[in-house]
Amino acid sequence: MGLFSLRSLLSPCVSIAVIFLISSLIGVTFMLGPETELNSQTFAKPARIAVNGLLEKERNNVWDGQWNGEDIVDAYRQWDATVGCEEFRKNLPPLMPIESLQDPNHVKCSELKQLHVSVLVKEHTWIPDSLNNLHACSCGLTCLWTKSPVQADDPDANFYELFRPPRKRKEGDPLRVYLDLEAEKKRASQDIFVSYHAKDDVQATYAGTFFHMNRNHYISPQKNRDVLIYWSSSRCLKDRNDIAQSLLPLVPHHSFGKCLNNVGGQDALLAMYPICGEGGGGQHSWSHPLHCAMSHYKFVLAIENTLTESYVTEKLFYALDAGSVPIYFGAPNVLDLVPPKSIIVGSGFSSMDELAAYIKHLADDPVQYAEYHAWRRCGVVGHYNHTRAVSLDTLPCRLCAAISRLGGKHAPALEDKEDGDSSQDNAR
Ligand SMILES: *[C@@H]1O[C@H](CO)[C@@H](O)[C@H](O)[C@H]1NC(C)=O
Prior knowledge:
The protein is an alpha/beta fold and 428 residues long. The chain has 14 helices and twelve strands. It has helices at residues 2-26, 40-62, 72-82, 84-90, 238-247, 268-272, 287-294, 314-321, 352-363, 366-371, 374-377, 384-389, 395-406, 422-427; strands at residues 116-123, 133-136, 142-146, 157-161, 175-179, 192-195, 202-203, 229-231, 253-255, 299-303, 325-329, 344-345. Helix 2 packs antiparallel against helix 3 (72-82). The radius of gyration is 26 Å and the shape is elongated. It starts with a helix and ends with a helix. The structure holds 2-acetamido-2-deoxy-beta-D-glucopyranose. The site of 2-acetamido-2-deoxy-beta-D-glucopyranose (NAG) has 4 residues, from helix 12. Keywords: Glycosyltransferase, Golgi apparatus, Membrane, Transferase, Transmembrane, Transmembrane helix. This is Fucosyltransferase. It is found in: Golgi apparatus, Golgi stack membrane. One of its GO terms (cellular component) is Golgi cisterna membrane.
């Protein structure tokens, strides 16, 4: 509040000062007649020249147009001086409606049948504890999300992840919610199915942060200058290995996992980056040191285990969150789900040679490389707010709304709708 009132007091003075500064810099007198075209267009342009002019001077003194190929903040500054957020936003493609993301408010307030819903998380592997809460949602809905049968002593729904729910439910029993975020997701015996696709009952993208809260305990300010790509994979699927094998030999890289390891084994990481073993519960989770390590590279190779629509997993989002640029092979509609100009889509190149040449070219150009980080420095752009709005982080309220719409425990028992699927069930 204090800051707000100070700001509103200051802002008129500041804007007047800025206008005077700009007008004196570009030699426009402030006494403009009504016939002078002082529209926003002519005004915006000189302002940019003035700002760039200042930075240009600063750059000549400090940066000298050079880049050591390592210092990421230096690359940011050079991008600020030559492009900047205003220009970046102006050149973004217009926002078109997309079908890859579900409306986070697709349950309307008038459809809610009860205003409090409780969800008991019964079986899970990586549903984060940070979701446990009594959530206050829109439309006056409240949502108790807990792993404790003491807190949810009479739940409206039981939540299952990985472990399949019971095949039968009768009216008065909790609804069965089933979450499966794997590529080969299969509907199980459930009333509500949660998965990564917009057409599933409730969508859950991987763009949230709750399931990797402490992973980015260290982000390196230096990028490796000569070794450009980080890769780590220990489940050596043939298709994935084939892609890696066709690209990696063309670009200097480090491969830390079991597949195509070139750093002298899986233990090499901590020897190379001792800082990655400190803090963030390093030794308690294999993934924490990996995140820290990938932040030392300009590019992270991210290849999904399956190339299918909307299946965009933590492999990509971890790389973004670690401050790197993913080179991505996976879902054909990936660009709907990530910030604009944040990733390099492998399939967009006619050959691996062309892709490799582009990567090397970017690595040497601080301005073009920094542009791939603009999205994180210029505020949320594109559809990324939407991708985040339907992530696992926001699942409780969205799921509780879906449960309420069905009437919770009072929903009639469904015909076993997955019966036609039972051969698939057995095949698993
Ligand atoms: C995301 O931002 C855009 C533009 O600001 C807005 O139109 C849209 O409603 C937002 N989407 C969500 C899901 O918040």
